[in-house]
Amino acid sequence: MNDKKFNALLGAAAVVIVSIFAGFVVTLVVQSLPAAKQEGVAFLYGSTWNPVTTKFGALPFIAGTVMTSALSLLLAVPLSLSAGILMGEYLRAGWMRSVLNTLINVLASIPSVVFGLWGIEVVIPLVRTLATLVGAPPYGAGILAASLVLAIMIIPYMSSMTREALLNVPAGLREGAFALGLTKHEVVTGIALPFAKKSIFAGLLLSLGRALGETMAVTMLIGNATRIPNSLFSLGNTLASVIASQFNEASSDVHRSAMMALALILLIITMLAGWFGRSVMRKGMSSYGK
Amino acid sequence: MENDLFVSRYARRKRNDALFRVAVFVPAALVVGILTLIIAQVVVHGAAAMNVSFFFQQQKPFGEAGGGIAQAIVGTLMVLLIATAIALPLSLLASLYLYEKRGRRGAGLLSGSVNTLQGIPSIVIGVVVYSWVVVPMKTFSALSGGIALAIVMLPLMTSMIKESLDLVPASYLEAALALGVPRWRAIVEIVIPAAGAGILEGTGLGIARAAGETAPLMFTAFGNPFLSLNPAGPVSALPLVIYEYIKSPYDDWHQKAWGAALILVLFVLALNLAIGARKKR
To answer: Which residues of chain A have pLDDT under 50?
Structure first.
């Protein structure tokens, strides 16, 4: 062993990891070709997904993904902001803080399939009751059930990002504001949140990336129907959940290729959410003092 | 008059402050309530499934009561072992690359790939490893499951290990170099041992993260009703049995799904807490 060989070894590992990433893109593009050739651009907006007649359009799943992600963010944002403000502004020390932190960390580490299990036992009956009350079809499973559990899953993530963003607010700003006689409410909404808003927004984007790609809990709760959902209570599928539920039972090569194309779409949108989120995050961190 | 105005404005500000406090505490209490409920239900339902045979017996045929999930516990340990054996050397070398070549274009490319890999949905990892490993081998296997989980672990471990390398004081390396030690030996014998605890923590977190992943295993390890130690054949795993059992029509299997969930959660938590406790010291 010498320095040259050692460096070559490090370089080889770097090449392996970069090629894993490049290989993902290449593999998915190549594997999607048969479906892309058959369907053309219509794959992106076609509303029929029928493995029997081998007609494949991704619109039902794009719609399902957009609906569940949007709805879960809508539910999770206010709750995560509250929890984040509580941890970052009100409970900066003491036993309540450690209890809350531990709880959030525990929840963040619970596997997605366990959330799915919980959703089947608790959320689906709840949604079924609600659906009966409003006269909707009482499936229980569907867009609403999936979005509720998805929201619960991203809360730990989003609230700890909010907490970190608020803890990064320079103490001088906050102390100065208190010294001028501002109330806690005014300090939080007028000083701390505006300062932290970029980092909080970045946290929202990274959470969106998670919601878009979340698979197991959604697969277990959304009802796995291949049509465009038209209400909160309809069954549906997301890009991820249709792959999870149909890939092993693919009835033809085109069917499998069409799912590779769905995976490619999923990869692209989560990559975009991640890149955008990280770039906002970097800007948020470097904005102080400019 | 002016004084009255001041007093009423002050009262309004005080009132807004109190309202804001309520607006923060009430939703946060709701969050705490839901999160506690989930944990409590996993513990209560899961504990009901626990007995000796649950851990040490294999799955009984469809609909037959009794039996356990030994095949899934063994399968999970197997795929995690394979995944760690692949991910640990690779992420250690990659993080050393980032440590040694910081600021160079290659390092930028590598850390960009690592960051992007971190955000890839696990189901996508599943389908890609399916076409990389399962299709050429013509069989589902523990090996392909291990490779899929290694890709899940890699980005997290690489960034954690890189962080712990950065915490090693530069003077350690410089002192060794000043004594005439070749750079590679200084790194292997001084920097890596100094970062040892961090490397261990990163590995632990990688394992904790991968242990609960279901989607990458569905098309790779696939699942197996029997206990199998063959790395070239399909194996079961805890997340896979949770998914499969809860879809079945049997109450006994539903209960076992909760039991498997509790074991999985305890395993992941134990790893996380052990690492958290180390960090605090």
So the answer is: 289-290
Residues 258-277 on B with a CB inside 8 Å of A are 258, 261, 264-265, 268-269, 272, 276
- Contact yes or no for B212 and A24 at CB 8 A: no
pTM, rounded to two decimals: 0.94
The Cα of B273 is separated from the nearest Cα of chain A by a number of Å equal to: 9
Bridge-based pairing state of the strands A55-56 and A49-50: antiparallel
Residue of B nearest to A107 (CA): B35
CB contact under 8 A, B32 and A100: yes
Regions of chain B with pLDDT less than 50: none
DSSP secondary structure, chain A, as one string: --HHHHHHHHHHHHHHHHHHHHHHHHHHHHHHHHHHHHHTTHHHH---EETTTTEE--HHHHHHHHHHHHHHHHHHHHHHHHHHHIIIII-SSSHHHHHHHHHHHHHHHS-HHHHHHHIIIIIHHHHHHHHHHHT----S-SHHHHHHHHHHHHHHHHHHHHHHHHHTS-HHHHHHHHHTT--HHHHIIIIIHHHHHHHHHHHHHHHHHHHHH--HHHHHHS----S---STTS----HHHHHHHHGGG--SHHHHHHHHHHHHHHHHHHHHHHHHHHHHHHHHHH-TT-
Residue A247 and residue B268: Cβ atoms within 8 Å? no
Closest CA to B199 of B234, B162, B228, B236: B162
Q: Which chain B residues have a beta carbon less than 8 Å from that of A3?
A: 182-184
pLDDT reported for residue A289: 47
Measured in degrees and rounded to the nearest 5, phi and psi for residue B219 equal: -105, 10
pLDDT score of A98: 86
Taken as a whole, chain A contains a residue count of 290
- Classify domain B55-280 at the CATH topology level: MetI-like fold (1.10.3720)
Alpha-carbon gap, residue A25 to A37, rounded angstroms: 18
In B, residues 49-88, which contact A (CB 8 Å cutoff)? Answer: none
The predicted complex's ipTM stands at 0.93
Q: Which domains does chain A have, with CATH numbers?
A: 55-286 (1.10.3720.10)
Is some CB atom of chain A closer than 8 A to the CB atom of B197? Answer: no
CA distance B56 to chain A (A): 22
Q: Do A10 and B100 touch (CB under 8 A)?
A: yes
